[in-house]
Amino acid sequence: MTVAATAKTGARPSWAGRRPPAPAWVGTVPFLAYVAIFLLWPTGIVAVDALKNPSGAWAFSNISELGNSQIRDFFIGSFKLCLLSSVTGAVLGAILAYVVASGDPDGLIRRLYLSVSGVLAQFGGVTLAFAFLVTIGPVGLLFHASWYFDFPWGIGLIYTYFQIPLMVLVFLPAIDGLKVQWREASESLGSSSWQYWRYVGGPLLAPAFLGGTLLLFANALSAFATIQAWENQIAYIVPQQISTAMSSEVGLSSVNVASLLALGLVIMVAIVMAAYVLLQRRAARWLR
Amino acid sequence: MRSPYRFAFAGITAAVLLATGCSSSSSSGSSGSGSSVNWANESSVSAGGGLSALVAAAKKEGTLNVIALPPTWANYGTIINTFQSKYGIKVNSTLPDGTSQQEVDAVKQENGSPKAPDVLDVGLAVALANTKLFAPYEVSTWSDIPAAQKEPTGLWYEDYGGYMAIGYEAKFGTITSLSQLLTPKFKGAVALNGNPTSANAALNAVMMVNLAEGGTPSDISKGVAFFHQLKQVGNFNPISATGATTKAGSTPVVFNWDYLNLQSYVGVPGWKVFVPPGVALGGYYAQAINKNAPHPAAARLWEEFLYSQAATGGQNLWLQGGARPVEEQAMTSAGTIDTAAAAKLPPVSGTPVFLSESQSSDAATYLATNWAKAIG
């Protein structure tokens, strides 16, 4: 920090006479290399494969396949499931986060709640589907309603199991950022509780809430193992169809279709994450 | 360290590293070709100089790489152990729960590596699509494999299989016809073990129903219509059946190959099996040898062992695991079959039907457009 400060003020650099330090961007090389190898390179491969035919020649007409009603249905399925689970998860998660935040900041409940959320937000896949299967499955321990298998309701319910804790984790800092003084100020000016939330708390939290919702949306978009274990005899969402296109034993496999579907998902995630970053930037203004 | 010798030292180190690198690669290159016979080019045991020569060459290689062979599936655990103790050859079993497609992917990706799979056990569709990866080989009992169940030059040959069957829990009583599955007793109970556009067993399940409903092998629509009905009455269970879901009781009625639907395999007390009368829809897996197998002699010895009709040979060991060996008929007439194990197989009636390549792909194409509509 001090070095940066002196450099900014134009003072004589403290390294005068010695070997100049490496430029600042050198520090980012490992990160950039990581991003290039594990994000950009695979994305590039997917994009290239998506635009080729099985014999390896360019086939830009593949793109028109995205308009094919069957393929569109998988994207609509993904969208429905992500929307349902992210909105439900965000609303319930936000309420829970508020409850937790209003308790003792160093209390046992809060610490317990945060660690449990940290664990449950990562609880997914086959284990989660199986847990639901033996409790609310067709012959489960509890009751079974036929709508559990109506897409996207049942699987949406299961997704909220990891969506709610994730929302608690990402939304809690925003609630903690609400300063008590703001509330005191609005109350001393005679506002009601409703007015405080309508004009102060709500607008402050809105970007964080929407950002959290988008994060949950992206989180649900890539989830695959859970739905695959819950009901995989039809493909409803894009990742399931990618799996079919990669590994069909009955002759329906096509790496190019799989890549095309994956490219569609990449675009979907990119849109969602761009919106998330914009919202986070807005939210961050108040939380410094 | 700030001396010119430093560079000399570095140079020597580099030279030594280079030299050891060269020598190790040259030694590994020369080691493979010890005997006069190159088994990689032999397409039968007699052409290579007889079984004892094959055994000697395989023992010299010392290792066999197999892939996607679950120990509990078709008795593979015992088969591998018997082979190891009989010939003293170590069997490296990788990816035991892999799929046929993953086996082929491994052959391609690990081509040239000593870890590449030597032999494959794949579904027929995958075998047909990848013959260029296989080496032709005819086992000693070649003539006992029915002509329709092998590639004429020995690129692949079916090994074991079974018939599509419905396994179910004892609480449902006894199933005597397919239409019973539409009764309220079976609410949410009837499961496949995968998506029929993706898994071969699930496609055959729909085809088996199709045949029972009066459909033909080249038109699977009646099977799809039955599953649509099953969904409408609320009896279709969209959970993909696995060993775990069946044991937990979540998939109490399962369509699967009969050797995977045996009580002894499923492990649910009182588990029963039903095959609709007159519908024998067969499915067999196929063996093939990797063209560039790192252990060519051991690979061929493994095939000889699998197709041996001896009491502890591969054919009878598969049978003891509930799978029907491809040489079953010849062995029955020759009296070499394990009759006790054969008697335990679920009874099947009618002329066995095997889907041809085009029938199978027609069915898949139909399912790709209609399955989701019928069940969704």
Features:
heterodimer, A: 288 residues, mainly alpha, MetI-like fold, disordered N terminus, B: 376 residues, alpha/beta, D-Maltodextrin-Binding Protein, domain 2, two-stranded parallel sheet
CATH class label of the largest domain in chain B? Alpha Beta
The major β-sheet of chain A equals: none
Individual helix count of chain A:
11
Q: What name does the CATH topology of chain A carry?
A: MetI-like fold
Largest interface: A-B, 33 and 45 residues
By DSSP, the count of extended strands of chain B is 12
CATH superfamily of the largest domain in chain B: Periplasmic binding protein-like II
Helix content of chain B: 25-40%
- By DSSP, the count of extended strands of chain A is 0
Oligomer: heterodimer
The stretches of 5 or more residues of chain B where confidence is low (pLDDT under 50) are 1-34
Indicate the low-confidence ranges of chain A by residue numbers: 1-9
The number of helical runs of chain B is 14
Q: What percent of the residues of chain A sit in helical stretches (DSSP H or I)?
A: 55-70%
* Average pLDDT level of chain B: 87
Strand content of chain B: 15-25%
Can you tell me about this structure?
The complex is a heterodimer of chains A (about 290) and B (about 375). Chain A is an all-alpha fold and about 290 residues long. Chain A contains 11 helices and no strands. In chain A, helix 6 crosses helix 8. The longest helix of chain A has about 35 residues. Chain B is α/β, with parallel strands linked by helices and about 375 residues long. The interface between A and B is large, with 33 and 45 residues.
How would you summarize the topology of this molecule?
The complex is a heterodimer of chains A (288) and B (376).
Chain A: H1 2-9, H2 29-50, H3 69-101, H4 108-120, H5 125-136, H6 153-177, H7 180-188, H8 193-222, H9 225-230, H10 238-247, H11 255-284
Helix pairs in contact in A: 2-11, 3-6, 3-8, 4-6, 6-8, 7-8, 8-11, 10-11
Chain B: H1 4-31, H2 51-61, E1 63-67, H3 76-87, E2 90-94, H4 100-109, E3 119-123, H5 124-129, E4 134-135, E5 157-168, E6 190-191, H6 200-212, H7 221-232, E7 236-237, H8 243-247, E8 253-257, H9 263-266, E9 272-274, E10 280-290, H10 296-306, H11 314-320, E11 324-325, H12 328-334, H13 339-343, E12 352-354, H14 357-375
Parallel strand pairs in B: 1-2, 6-7, 6-8, 10-12
Antiparallel strand pairs in B: 3-10, 4-10, 5-8, 5-9, 5-10, 5-11
Helix pairs in contact in B: 2-10, 6-7, 7-14
